[in-house]
Design brief:
Blueprint (H helix, E strand, L loop, with lengths): L3 E11 L8 E9 L3 E5 L6 H7 L11 E8 L2 E2 L7 H7 E4 L10 H11 L5 H14 L3 H4 L12 H13 L5 E5 L7 H14 L4 E5 L3 H7 L2 E6 L2 E7 H6 L4 H7 L5
Helix pairs in contact: 3-4, 3-6, 4-6, 6-7
Organism: Helicobacter cappadocius
Protein name: Phosphate ABC transporter ATP-binding protein PstB
InterPro entries: AAA+_ATPase, ABC_transporter-like_ATP-bd, ABC_transporter-like_CS, P-loop_NTPase, PstB-like
């Protein structure tokens, strides 16, 4: 496996007022500049695990982590971790596109402004670069001042990706990013993922096993909050080591 971008060590997570962990004793290494797909039946803990990697659960009081998540040689589960800074390094794209109620340009510039870049002459090339990297520039370059709400669902999702990559994160987390999109938009996002991994590491949660095979280098199978197996994607789908993985791949449950 390549150099490690981020690693979970004996990681468990408890939602507020729960004595039972939603994910339990997860050991997982995320390789750098690769796409890792998290697969498994609904409710198995995929999205819960994904949101641990940028401490998204901490937006709600009462959540509890146990174990470690090592990123840049530090355990990001420690209380002193700067969560705002962490989320600029580990961005997230959600299932439903979430453009801000502002112009296309300002959506992409938003994070850059938070980082202290205010001058439009300095902002513009960075916004242009992000939109190009998100394969959206040619579609929006003549209407940057237009509302983001005017874009199609697939364009809005690529706009959210542009917004995330404008601040140059090291890792991007994708939670079912194409489940609400049409096939053409889905293909555009999948092509984009293959290109983005040249610049960053990617973790994607997907229920679509064909999508996992198309876009990922590694696949991890989860069941009932536990990590059952991780391997190169081809191995997982052609010759899984674990019986549970094999049965899920064959559609015997899920």
């Amino acid at each position: 496996m390549n150099k490690i971008a981020i690693e979970a060590k004996n990681l468990s997570f408890y939602y507020p007022n729960s004595d039972k962990p939603s994910i339990s004793n997860i050991d997982l290494k995320i390789p750098q500049n690769k796409v890792l797909a998290l697969i498994g039946p609904s409710g198995c803990g995929k999205s819960t695990l994904l949101r641990c990697f940028n401490r998204m659960h901490c937006l709600y009081d009462g959540s509890t982590y146990k174990g470690e998540i090592i990123f840049e040689d530090k355990n990001i589960l420690k209380k002193k971790t700067d969560l705002i800074a962490l989320r600029t390094q580990i961005g997230m794209i959600f299932q439903k596109p979430t453009p801000f109620p502002m112009s296309i340009f300002e959506n992409v510039a938003y994070g850059l402004r938070l980082k202290g870049i205010k001058n439009k002459m300095e902002l513009f090339p960075k916004v242009e670069k992000a939109l190009k990297n998100a394969s959206l520039w040619n579609e929006v370059k003549d209407r940057l001042d237009g509302s983001a709400d005017s874009l199609s669902g697939g364009q809005q999702q690529r706009l959210c990706i542009a917004r995330a990559i404008a601040i140059e994160p090291e890792i991007l987390l994708f939670d079912e990013p194409t489940s609400a999109l049409d096939p053409i938009s889905t293909e555009a996002i999948e092509d984009l993922l293959k290109d983005l991994k040249k610049k960053m590491s990617i973790i994607i949660v997907t229920h679509n096993m064909q999508q996992a095979q198309r876009v990922s280098d590694y696949t991890a199978f989860m069941y009932l909050g536990k990590l059952i197996e991780i391997d190169k994607t081809q191995h997982i789908f052609e010759n899984p080591k674990e019986k549970l993985t094999r049965e899920y791949i064959k559609g015997k449950f899920g």
